[in-house]
Write a structure and sequence with these properties.
By secondary structure, the chain is of the alpha/beta class. 41% of the residues lie in helices and 16% in strands. It is built from twelve helices and 13 strands. A seven-stranded parallel β-sheet has the order 3-2-1-4-5-6-11, with helices on both faces. It has a two-stranded parallel ribbon with strand order 7-10. The longest helix has 22 residues. It is globular. The structure holds uridine-5'-diphosphate (UDP). The site of uridine-5'-diphosphate has 15 residues, from α7 and β8.
């Protein structure tokens, strides 16, 4: 099979590329390297068993001619190219909206030209400010005001979802929307605000671990390996086309407890500092207090649900940083 991965030099994209290459498929990547890095795929390019089937394009998905060439060549498309990370979105609000809305529109339009199967990566952000758990795909989306720019990410990704579903409904495009819940694992950078790599890097360096807000907000974490397993199954699942599907871990943990666990696992003496949100983020930030998925739909469609427990996930990330980072 020929697989196109937009954002293929990113954290999740590089793992997905590796999985397909190891199974003998041809992989085409397109990445503008805005948050991705060639470092993430260097080991694939240097592996002589894999590199002959890996084709890398450094460009934006907004380049229509290039997208026509790549989508035309491939059998399936995974659209992972996006502006991600709360801090990155708050620092680059306009570029993020353009990338996320126009980029997805372009991918869908070109996939429709060739009637290609496509999986669109969305985010649990689209649920917004819920306090109940677990979140199911048909739950309402609840956002704050447009003055709070965090919600621009959720709104842009929700438009992506509507566009994908409208392509399916009106033109029969075989498209799946996946809502990802805090995916973590080797190669994830802490540079754009993601909590786990930041905590681990600080703990291993013996520096203060900074918990924002009061630390009672909770998250679940999914190992990237489980995300890749879900993606490769979903793209082959006929019944998943035209559907929105949660992909996430289900073990809920508060951010303060996460900081303590990381400190223990790293054997670190780092202090934990509680920092108010207004000192941690640029203005117009609002946090999500809770975010736990139901993965019943994923399991029902594919027979698969994430398998790695939280302790295993955290151990793997600590181990990865201890060994010095990518690949
Ligand atoms: N967070 C934190 N310290 C950090 C980075 C993040 O306490 O150094 C908090 C953040 O405010 C949020 C949670 O950790 O409550 C998860 O943040 P992240 O940006 O990783 O993901 P998201 O908010 O999108 O779930």
């Amino acid at each position: 099979m020929r697989v196109l991965i937009t954002g293929g030099a990113g954290f999740i994209g590089s793992h997905l590329a590796e999985e397909y290459l190891e199974h003998g498929d041809e992989v085409y990547l397109i990445d503008d390297l805005s948050t991705g890095s060639l470092e993430n795929i260097r080991h694939l390019q240097q592996n002589e068993n894999l590199s002959g089937r890996l084709f890398v394009t450094v460009d934006t998905v907004l380049n229509r001619e290039k997208m026509i060439e790549l989508v035309g060549t491939c059998d399936v498309v995974f659209h992972l190219a996006a502006a991600v990370g709360v801090r990155f979105i708050l620092d680059n609000p306009l570029d993020s909206i353009i990338t996320n809305v126009r980029g997805t529109e372009m991918v869908l339009e070109v996939c429709h030209l060739f009637k290609k199967r496509v999986l669109i990566a969305s985010t649990s952000e689209v649920y917004g400010k819920h306090m109940h758990a677990p979140l199911v795909e048909t739950d309402n989306c609840i956002y704050g005001p447009s003055s709070k720019f965090r919600w621009s990410y959720a709104a842009a990704k929700l438009i992506d979802e509507f566009t994908a579903l409208a392509y399916h409904r009106t033109k029969g495009l075989p498209v799946i929307v996946c809502r990802l819940f805090n995916t973590v694992g080797p190669r994830q950078s802490g540079e754009y605000g993601m909590v786990l790599p930041r905590f681990v890097q600080k703990a291993l360096a013996g520096e203060a671990i900074t918990v924002y807000g009061d630390g009672t907000q909770t998250r679940t974490f999914t190992h990237v390996r489980d995300v890749v397993a879900a993606f490769t199954r979903l793209i082959l699942t006929q019944e998943a086309y035209g559907e929105v599907v949660n992909v996430g871990g289900v073990e809920e943990i508060s951010i303060l407890r996460l900081a303590e666990k990381i400190r223990e696992k790293s054997g670190s003496a780092s202090p934990i500092h509680i920092i108010p949100y207004d000192q941690a983020y640029p203005r117009d930030f609002e946090d999500m207090q809770r975010r736990v998925p139901s993965v019943d739909k994923l399991r029902q469609l594919t027979g698969f649900a994430p398998t790695m427990c939280l302790d295993g996930i955290l151990d793997d990330v600590v181990d990865h940083f201890r060994k010095g980072g990518p690949p």
